[in-house]
Structures are given as structure tokens and as C-alpha cells.
Specification:
Blueprint: E1 5-21, H1 23-26, E2 35-36, E3 43-57, E4 60-61, E5 68-81, E6 84-96, H2 99-109, E7 113-115, E8 117-122, E9 126-133, E10 136-144, E11 149-150, H3 156-161, E12 165-169, E13 175-181, E14 186-196, H4 199-202, H5 208-211, E15 217-229, E16 232-233
Parallel strand pairs: 6-7, 6-12
Antiparallel strand pairs: 1-3, 1-15, 2-5, 3-4, 3-5, 5-6, 8-9, 9-10, 10-14, 11-14, 12-13, 13-15, 13-16, 14-15
């Protein structure tokens, strides 16, 4: 059983730009009890921007904190559980526009959240998310066209979206794991994608050469209602 519901929301218009990296730069971030999860032998990281809508904590909507943007840098791990491999994500940094949201995530899961001024623009043909730090705006943007389609089995879109656990390293060196539940998402392939950011300042110098390279893929997932369950110590 996944446990008690902690958060429910809709995640919508998930813009995902994906990059191959040297596995050695990710290993210091891998939580105890998990291992890197590779796609066709590649270690991938993703810049992800999306909308949190109708957010509730333990079934209770929090005034002025129901609808907001999030941008995160994440990578992919797996853990052998009683029922087989549990494939999940680890967040290197998560950015939201609300200090209270960042505080709750840090306290409850020890996730590396930071609050910044944010904005977004979503149309029928483009999706963009921006965040502001040190007098500069960063941007994640993609152009899309046509109808959203199911991902193809074995595709990079399947690998990126079909991870249903989150793992977070704790201050004592342990790991908390939590289940994330949502149906498979339809996706638009991006016809053009941009990521503009002071990468060294926000994410660290070790990621700069990789996040300025040509991405392995870029797409926008339609999204859906999601449930995040209470985390448990592994």
C-alpha cells in the first residue's frame, strides 16, 4: 500500500527538456538504498517546468497557495523493493514562488526547495516558465504543434514520465521514499526548445557544460490529477 495521502493537485503543461550527463556528477546526489536508473545506457537529467493547480495538503486547500508554478532539475534512480524495481526521481533543486511551500517541502521531505519570483505563459503553440534571481530572469520554453499523443513503449518520453516514486536524502544520511500516483500522460513533441539560465549560480558548475549542450529530447506532457503519498523512511 502506498500509505496516507499527503498532497493532491493537478500537474499541468509539464515542459521537460532532457540532457545526457556523466553519471559521476550524479552519484554524490544518489540517496542511500537507490541506484542510478539509465535509459539505453545514458544517465539523464531533466529540466521540468509545470503548473501546480488546485493544491491540497491532507485534503485541505491552503488559501493563496493553491495555484503556482514549479521548475525543477531532477534525475532518475531505482530501488529494489519487495514487489520489484521501484523507479523514481531525485530532485537536485526545486523552485517555487511561495516561501511557505518551499518551507513545508524542506521540513517534511528535506527536499532542496527555493522560493523565487516566477511567471509563466501557456498558449496553444508554446509553453514557458521563468524564474528570477539576482536581477536576472531564467527561462524554460518550448514550441509545440498538433495533437498530444500517447508515448511510445521504450521511448525517452516513457522513461522520463513513468517514474512513480520520489527519493530524498535526509540529514542523517538516510532516505525517505514517497509514492506519486497519476495516469500515463499524453505528450506533445517540442518543435523548438530553449533553456536560458545562469546555471553555475543556480545549479552548480558541474552541470554547466551538460545543460548548455543540445538536449536529447524535449516535450510537453498534458498532465493530470496527481496524488503524493506520505513519505516513509527506507
Amino acid at each position: 500500500m502506498p500509505g496516507q495521502k499527503f498532497l493532491t493537485a493537478e500537474w499541468k503543461d509539464l515542459l521537460m527538456i532532457n540532457y545526457e550527463v556523466d553519471p559521476s556528477i550524479l552519484r554524490p546526489f544518489v540517496p542511500h538504498g537507490t541506484e542510478l536508473d539509465f535509459w539505453q545506457g545514458k544517465a539523464l537529467v531533466s529540466m521540468v517546468g509545470f503548473m501546480f493547480l488546485d493544491t491540497k495538503l491532507r485534503g485541505i486547500p491552503i488559501p493563496f497557495h493553491r495555484h503556482f508554478e514549479e521548475v525543477n532539475l531532477r534525475f532518475y534512480v531505482r530501488r529494489k523493493g519487495p514487489e520489484g524495481w521501484q523507479r523514481g526521481v531525485v530532485f537536485i533543486k526545486e523552485i517555487v514562488p511561495k516561501i511557505a511551500i518551499a518551507t513545508v517541502a524542506r521540513v517534511c521531505y528535506n527536499e532542496n526547495y527555493e522560493a523565487m519570483k516566477m511567471r509563466h505563459e501557456i498558449t496553444q503553440t508554446s509553453v514557458s516558465y521563468e524564474w528570477h534571481r539576482d536581477h536576472n530572469w531564467s527561462m524554460l520554453q518550448a514550441q509545440i504543434g498538433g495533437d498530444a499523443q500517447p508515448w511510445q513503449p521504450g521511448s525517452e518520453e516513457e522513461f522520463i514520465t513513468e517514474h512513480y516514486w520520489g527519493y530524498a536524502r535526509q540529514r542523517d544520511g538516510g532516505t525517505v521514499g514517497y509514492r506519486v500516483e497519476h495516469p500515463p500522460w499524453l505528450v506533445w513533441r517540442a518543435t523548438k526548445a530553449r533553456f536560458v539560465c545562469d546555471i553555475k549560480n543556480i545549479y552548480g558548475a558541474q552541470f554547466e557544460s551538460y545543460l548548455t549542450a543540445v538536449p536529447t529530447s524535449a516535450f510537453v506532457a498534458v498532465g493530470s490529477p496527481v496524488t503524493v503519498y506520505q513519505g516513509t523512511k527506507l
